[in-house]
Design goal:
Largest interface: A-B, 38 and 46 residues
Oligomer: heterodimer
Strand order of the largest sheet of chain B: 19-20-23-24-29-28
Strand order of the largest sheet of chain A: 3-4-5-8-9-10-11-12-13-14-15-16-17-18-20-21
Number of helices of chain B: 1
Shape of chain B: globular
Structural class of chain B: mainly beta
Helix content of chain B: under 10%
Distance between the termini of chain B: 11 Å
Number of strands of chain A: 21
Structural class of chain A: mainly beta
Radius of gyration of chain A: 21 Å
Helix content of chain A: under 10%
Strand content of chain A: over 45%
Number of strands of chain B: 33
Distance between the termini of chain A: 14 Å
Largest sheet of chain A: 16 strands, antiparallel, barrel
Shape of chain A: globular
Chain lengths: ~425, ~425
């Protein structure tokens, strides 16, 4: 990887912006490496990404096949550090609210009022300020702002396959007003976070001040080798889907193992996640959803191949006139059944086409899905919703990027296990 | 009508009747009740001759005609409500009426004079549709009312007359950044419904209402039950300017629906029955109890009793008031018939229980032997009963997956 250091004069420090020119896969190395090499200076890293794609889903909502052209994952990400890395900033601005306000066609996906379409993320996807320090062999950090709670696995946007897995709302907790504390000692990282449980209601929504601190999460990560990690996490989230706090609470568990080579050429992740919805008024558990997922990627010469296997439970909700939308907030606390989805997704990506600071990664992704009701008595079953239990989804497009990818997303400060 | 011995009883009852809806405390009645340790099975007379592919919602029956709504329709299905002839044991489909710009028709009601049918529509644009029932089996659309305050969907539409004028009381869904709304619409001119009041209310929902004698009950979910004077109380309220009389928080909140009982035999008006709609998976499971609230002092109502069914939760009610029997739709629990005559707030220690997650004991209607009958529990394919209506010795039920049923009502021995 060739790096082009670009020095900009600043009032009291030197800012280094690194723009790698030649990238060939999703995991081409982490920008934090450049920060640690240059601890005496302030540093910054900026990347921009957008994926232009076409998706054909057969069938999709309403039991009909649908095709969509979209620009997804349009994001500008920045990381910076100052004061000898004692202070860091993470920012991610997301333009999906502009490029795909009606969501991205993605069979099985759900959440935030969308179904079979992935919802657009908030414009301010992440804006976190971190302070870090150390004492003896231990290091620690405190992070505050809007971003990820210390729960689960990396955001799918930073993973090889373009289409999000169905378990996004079971395996990550994001776009929350949050305060994260992390400590690292040797091979172990411990994190705790408190945050507002309310999930976004639109791309422009901000965390409600009244909800801040009503939820918490904790994650323990073990790093057996320089390229692998094992995490266990737990979260209690107050009323994520009902903004005033009167909805069902969630208790979430996640376990995962992850390994990625330093050059990003080999990557594997296996995770299990479970969310139990709890009626806090009656103090009883009412619904439970599980997910198991394994994915990996391998780069061989000019071609990268990725594979994902997933089984995830999805709550069914009443549809609006647009069958890819559900009422938000819902009009009561009930669901209309649980569908168990099984998905096999294969992606092939070519080597990058580079022009200037811009790179393009053509890809093709094919998914085969099956769906079955967890209980045949459910009112909304796949047969009723789609007229079938078998689905295909094919996607082709180009991932456009300027700047080195941030290979991790969802951890801050000393909770970032390693630079890849 | 049977009274236990006591020479003062008729005088007391007459006084209680005169004070109905007031803050006077009605005395305990002494009317005998059914005490059952083994509820009987209600006799099923027939299931509709047409099994709708659409999911069934609410039911309303007048005379020999029933109307059932449909829920969660897709664009390909279109949204309709059905008209049934229920004169025979097996309800017979007569017709269906298509409603545009709606996926769910959650509520249906006929005016007290039988002239109008009102249907609620969800979601955006939420509305009520007003039909003429000059021919009850051929409803003719007179008007469709929507406003900025109903835009996210009309979840329920109860209708009732206040000082001679017909009103609709709409429970409106919350929307993005907008809370649930109670909207009151004057139907005095059916062709031109006129909104007279609207307010954001409920935590976070207002689900259902009950209007009687100028008193409006509101199911405000976790904000409890509110009792408003809209023309029948002493506070000078009107439909356009309601005045709150009182409010009560029932155990576990989730207040969904209300029935304020006026027993024409005992003339007791002391009790309101509150349906708690707790979480369920439609078609599979449900939860939520019936809470009995003593409203004899409307400014200070209090919960005195409850009824719970393991593994099932309640939804809408209908009461055979002359016989003192409440029928509750109980989703996967079928229909439950409760004897609600007499004193429900006095019981022995052995008849008291603590509701789930509660801290106080209340009279338990089951332990008091008030559960007198169960209907539609074992019908082969699972039932999920949304609505129920008593009429003329019969009980009609709307069953989300199975359509309409007709059962024989419980008779008081």
């Amino acid at each position: 990887m060739r790096m082009l250091p670009l020095r900009l004069a600043a009032a009291s420090s030197v800012v280094i912006i690194t723009l790698p020119f030649s990238l060939s896969a999703q995991h081409e190395g982490h920008d934090m490496a450049s920060m640690s090499r240059d601890s005496t200076h302030a540093s910054a890293h900026v990347m921009a990404q957008a994926i232009s794609l076409v998706t054909h889903a057969d069938p999709s909502t309403g039991g009909v096949s649908r095709t969509q052209f979209a620009v997804t994952q349009m994001v500008v990400m920045a990381r910076g550090s100052a004061l000898r890395n004692h202070v860091e900033v993470n920012a991610a601005l997301n333009g999906e609210g502009l490029t795909m306000p009606n969501g991205e066609l993605n069979t099985g996906a759900y959440g935030e009022g969308f179904v079979d379409r992935r919802h657009p993320h908030t414009y301010v996807h992440e804006l976190m300020l971190t302070g870090r320090g150390s004492t003896g062999p231990a290091s620690y950090s405190v992070t505050a702002g809007r971003g990820f709670a210390s729960f689960g696995t990396d955001d799918p946007m930073m993973r090889p396959l373009v289409k999000y897995p169905i378990n996004h709302h079971l395996s990550q907790v994001l776009e929350r007003g949050t305060l994260v504390g992390a400590a690292r000692l040797g091979l172990v990282i411990v994190e705790g976070s408190t945050f507002g449980g309310d999930e976004p209601t639109s791309p422009s929504s901000l965390p409600r001040a009244a909800r801040l601190g009503d939820s918490w999460a904790t994650r323990v990560t073990f790093l057996p080798t320089a390229v692998s990690e094992f995490q266990v996490s737990y979260a209690r989230i107050a009323s994520p889907e009902e903004p005033t706090g009167h909805g069902l609470d969630q208790r979430k568990q996640s376990v995962s193992v992850r390994s990625a080579s330093s050059d990003g050429g080999r990557y594997v992740l296996a995770e299990w996640a479970r969310t139990v919805e709890r009626d806090h008024d009656r103090d009883v558990d009412v619904f439970g959803y599980e997910s198991a997922l394994a994915e990996g990627s391998l780069r061989a010469g000019p071609v990268a191949v990725a594979l994902r296997l997933e089984q995830t439970d999805r709550p069914e909700e009443e549809r609006l006139a647009d069958p890819s939308r559900t009422p938000r907030p819902a009009s009561d606390l009930s669901i209309n059944g649980i569908t168990r989805w099984r998905v096999v997704t294969v992606q092939m990506a070519a080597a990058s086409v580079t022009r200037g600071v811009f790179s393009g990664f053509p890809f093709v992704e094919v998914a085969r899905l099956t769906a079955a009701p967890r209980d045949a008595r459910s009112l909304l079953t796949p047969q009723r919703l789609y007229g079938t239990t078998n689905f295909w989804m094919a996607t082709a497009g180009v991932r456009l990027r300027a700047g080195a990818a941030h290979s991790r997303m969802g951890r801050y400060g000393v909770a970032l296990p390693n630079p890849h | 009508m049977r009274f236990s011995p006591g020479t003062v009883a008729p005088v007391v009852m007459a006084f209680a009747a005169a004070c109905a809806s007031s803050d006077f405390v009605t005395p305990r009645d002494t009317t005998s009740v059914i005490v059952s340790s083994n509820p009987v099975t209600m006799t099923v007379l027939g299931q509709g001759n047409f099994h709708p592919l659409r999911t069934t919602g609410e039911i309303f029956v007048r005379g020999t005609t029933a109307y059932t709504t449909t829920w969660g329709n897709t664009a390909a299905q279109a949204t309709v409500f059905y008209i049934w002839d229920v004169s025979a044991n097996v309800p017979t489909l007569i017709d269906s009426v298509k409603v545009d710009k709606a996926t769910t028709l959650g509520d249906v009601a006929v005016s007290d004079d039988g002239s109008l049918l009102v249907v609620a529509s969800e979601y955006t644009p939420g509305s009520i549709l007003v039909y003429s029932l000059a021919d009850p089996r051929k409803p003719v659309l007179v008007s469709r009312f929507t406003s900025n305050q109903t835009i996210f969907g009309v979840h329920t539409a109860e209708i009732g007359r206040v000082n001679g004028t017909l009103y609709a009381f709409l429970g409106v869904d919350p929307g993005s950044g907008v809370g649930s709304q109670l909207t009151i619409v004057d139907l005095g001119t059916p062709a031109n419904p006129r909104q007279v009041y609207s307010t954001q209310i409920g935590s976070p929902y207002v689900h259902d209402t009950f209007v009687r004698d100028g008193i409006l009950y509101l199911g405000l979910w976790n904000a409890g039950v509110a009792i408003w004077d809209i023309g029948g109380g002493a506070l000078g309220g009107t439909p356009a300017a309601p005045k709150e009389i009182g409010r009560v928080q029932t155990v576990n909140g989730h207040v969904h629906n209300i029935w304020w009982l006026k027993d024409p035999v005992t003339r007791i008006t002391r009790y309101a029955f509150i349906g708690e709609e707790s979480p369920g998976s439609l078609g599979v499971s449900s939860s939520g109890d019936i809470h009995v609230v003593d409203v004899s002092t409307m400014s200070a109502p209090k919960e005195v009793a409850f009824y719970t069914v393991a593994g099932a939760g309640t939804h809408n009610f209908s009461v055979d008031e002359p016989n003192g029997i409440l029928y509750a739709a109980y989703y996967n629990g079928g229909i439950r018939a409760l004897d609600v005559r007499g004193d429900l707030g006095t019981c022995t220690a052995a008849q008291r229980s603590t509701p789930l997650n509660g801290t106080v004991t209340f009279c338990d209607l089951r332990k008091m032997g008030r559960e007198v009958a169960i209907g539609l529990k074992d019908q082969g394919s699972g039932v999920y009963v949304w609505g129920v209506q008593y009429l003329g010795g019969m009980v009609y039920a709307s069953d989300m997956p199975n359509g309409i049923w007709k059962l024989r009502a419980v008779t008081r021995p």
